[in-house]
Amino acid sequence: xxxxxxxxxxxxxxxxxxxxxPDTLGGSSTYIALSASYFTDKVEMVGVVGADFEDKHxxxxxxxxxxxxxxxxxxxxxxxxWAGRYHYDMNTRDTLDTQLNVxxxxxxxxxxxxxxxxxxxxxxxxxxxxxxxxxxxxQPKLVICDTMNFWIEGQPEELKETLAxxxxxxxNDSEARLLSGDPNLVKSARIIRAMGPKTLIIKKGxxxxxxxxxxxxxxxxxxxxxxxxxxxxxxxxxxxxxxxHLARCESITEAEMRKAVLYGSAxxxxxxxxxxxxxxxxxDLLEIEDRYESFRDLSKIED
Length: 303
Description:
UDP-N-acetylmuramoyl-L-alanine:D-glutamate ligase; 4-stranded mixed β-sheet; Carboh/pur_kinase_PfkB_CS; Ribokinase-like; alpha/beta; transferase; kinase activity; globular
C-alpha cells in the first residue's frame, strides 16, 4: 500500500538541557515519512525546500527508499527554519525563531503518479492546503490529519471543513480542549468526532495516548525511558508509525488500529532518544518489534 505524506521539510536549531543541535533536518513530513518507511516500501512526499537543501539531505530520505519526486526545490530561496529551546522537564519549549522562507508560498502540487495513493497523511500545515491536497487525490482508502493550536485559533472554519473529509485525526490533549471548547478529554473526543473523523487519537506526551472509535476507548501507555534527548518530531513520528502499520495490514480493524497506536508510540519513543531524525535513520525491524512487544507488556496482566 502506498502512503502519501504532505507537510513541511525544515532545518531546526534545537536546544535541550542535554545539548544543542543546529541545522538539524526536520519538518513534519520528514518525521512522518521516515517513520512510515519501516512498515511499507512505498512512501511518497510532497513538499518544498530551498537551495540550502542539499543532496546529502535528500540522501537521508532516499536511504529509506522514500520517493521525493513531489518535493519542489526553489533555487532562489531558503528552506523553512525553526529554532526552539526545551525546558528541563522537556514538556515545555520556547520558540526562539521561525523563518517560513519558501514554505510561505507552498502550493502543494501532487504528481499524477501519487494521486492514486492508498493512504494520505496530512502533516501540520494550513488547513486550506490540506483541502487542496485532498482535492487532488482520487480515492484514498484512509486519510489521516494533524493540526496545531495556530490553525485551531486562526482558521477554525477551514479546519472543520478539512475534518469533514478526514478518517483519522491526531492531536494532543491541549489542542483537543481548545478545538472542542471543553476541558474533559472524553467529552472533547465526542465533540471532535462529530465534526467528521470517526477515529480520534489524543496524544498525551509522556502519559501515552488515547484512541477513540465507535467501539470505545483504548489507552496506550508511554514507554518509560531513562534518557530523552529531544522530543522534537515525536508526534509526527507517532503518526508515521501509526499509518505505516495500517498500510501493511490486509484490513483495518479495531484490533489493528490499537496495534497501530502501539507501533506509533514505539517509533516516537525511538525518536526522542537522539536529536532530530538521527535515530529514525538507524533502526531495524527487530528493534521496532522488540519495542512494540515492550509496550504490550507494560499493560499485560497475567492470570
